[in-house]
Amino acid sequence: MLFLELALIRWTGSNIVHLSYFTNFVLLGSFLGIGLGFLRVGRTARPPYYSAIALAVLVLVILRFPVTVDRDTEGVLYWTSLNTSGPPPWLILPLIFAAAAVVLMGPAELVGRCFPELDRLEAYRYDLVGSLTGIALFTALSFLGAPPVVWGMIAAAAYVALLWPRGLGGRVAVLVPSLVVVGALAVETLTAGALWSPYYKVTYDRFLWQGVPVMDIQVNGIPHQQAIPARERLSWERQYALPYERSAAHRLDDVLIVGAGSGTDVAIALAKGAKHVDAVEIDPRLRELGEIYHPDRPYADPRVTTVVTDGRAYLERTARKYDLILFALPDSLTLVSGAGSLRLESYLFTRQAMEAARDHLKPGGTFSMYNYYREGWLVDRLAATAQAAFGHRPCVDVVSQAGQQAVITAGLAAADQSCGAEWAGAAAGAPPPSDDDRPFLYLKDRTIPQIYVVTLILILIVSLLAVRAVAGPYRRMRPYADLFLLGVAFMLLETKSVTGFALLFGTTWVVNAVVFAGVLVAVLAAVEVTRRFPTPPLPVMYGVLLAGLVLAWLVPSSWLLGLPLPLRAVTAVVVAFLPIFAANVVFAKRFADSHDGTTAFGANLLGAMAGGCLEYLALVVGYRGLLIVAGLLYLGAFALLPRRAAAA
Predict the structure, then answer these.
(1) Which positions ≥6 away from 53 have C-beta within 8 Å?
(2) From CA 146, how far away is CA 141, in angstroms rounded?
(3) Could you give the domains of the chain?
(4) What pLDDT digit, counting tens, does each position of 237-254 carry?
(5) Torsions phi, psi of 86, nearest 5?
């Protein structure tokens, strides 16, 4: 189940570009499907052939109707000038959500049928071990850069192993859709010419334009980067020269480039006379393309050192000082998986991030950033953020009004920058600087954008109808209302953990995979402790849980970032996983005492889906505020705890 869920998130996001910015919609659909699968147990004995058929149909539909995203709408979390082709998001997102639910419902039904055959916690234990195996397998394939046809072959083999019947009709119902999935993905793999990074489907095209060698790079179908010789790039677009002109010292002994990509910004720094360049890029495939195909071969230059990580993590770990720190068009075009609103580069544009950059400047050094910002208020917001971090007004050069192409430069002191004209300051109504608790640079107002609200409402309506159709009357789940709230709260707790570790250790796919695996290990540890040792009664464990939430609230991320890396890791694990462990001891004790294990587990999973919708509250209250929401939900679960369970 978990392998299939991760594969669906990665593959659908590479073809339905909306899902690059709404990755948790597939996650929510998966939770709904798994919950429905458990609730469906006992209602039919037929094998769930519908799951393999639904997966085949989903693959064919997505390959037939791919979508490019419209990111012109102000207020959402992305921006560019591309237009939509394909179904609109309010239509395609709920459809993908429903399809993911049907696909995951099948294997969940098979798992649910095993639960009555085993002790409650023994069954849950096997489920968790399987989940860890799924994460490990998909992480290994991501590391190896395996294409989706390999994912499809593994899924197809699992379907055949789990559903293989004796009759001819059943075998056809399993084999045909499995072959369709593998065949369709094989065709895509052979025709797309794509490289699969841990974040994107990367395609590229090399050609000559007016005698100049150019490499166009697209990720998930979106034009992303161009590898062009430094000389031509400097002559074509003035923004690339301005960071060097705005430095009063004009000293380039050590340069840091964050968002080095395929290497053009590195080549420009070398052309400007940099003696040493540290090039930081989060995506290993983009860096490899630049190393092999960039016309200037900047990554082969002995003056260049490359580091594959995200920029904020590098700034928090390195002790080096620089004459120039450059944020070179860092725009990830995707979100951190499992965190509904956090982009890979979100923590790079906060006030704390620019303060970290300031602290890594040599005397006389400068910080600069450039991009196409689409909206004037984005330029004002970033300039105001630089002003707050450096203590004086930066240089602001709007190179082109079309797309708001702008360069923002701040010297360590005001005398260290040489502005063409003084920045007038942020316009009235410009949003304040973003911070590490609400790192939503592209969200102008403290609100949930309409596109999210409408789509989430549609998802909840579909979910209510699906639960009623599959599971029957809602009163069947009424005794497990507390388990439903436990699922809601735990999803918020998991989101806070994912975003917290992304800030402390980086938004890379490795950190993300380790955090998800760590959450499952904490859950498994709670189950094992509950199975093997006497544990305090539920009221006491609820007290421990709430104490853990208070501790997580009291320990600020800024303090953790100031600790040495080993101590930071130990402290962060204790602070983050104490409430997770306590929450799962609560769940394990309550689940072991439930009368109907499959219904109880299904109610909990449906709660996790609702929690995935509630995590968008972070856009309003911040990620730290999710701890308060989770605490209120846990209090609600305790209030709904049956008297018999509380007494036990």
Answers:
(1) 173, 177
(2) 5
(3) 2-193+445-647 (1.20.1250), 202-331+351-416 (3.40.50.150)
(4) 888 999 999 999 889 999
(5) 110, -175
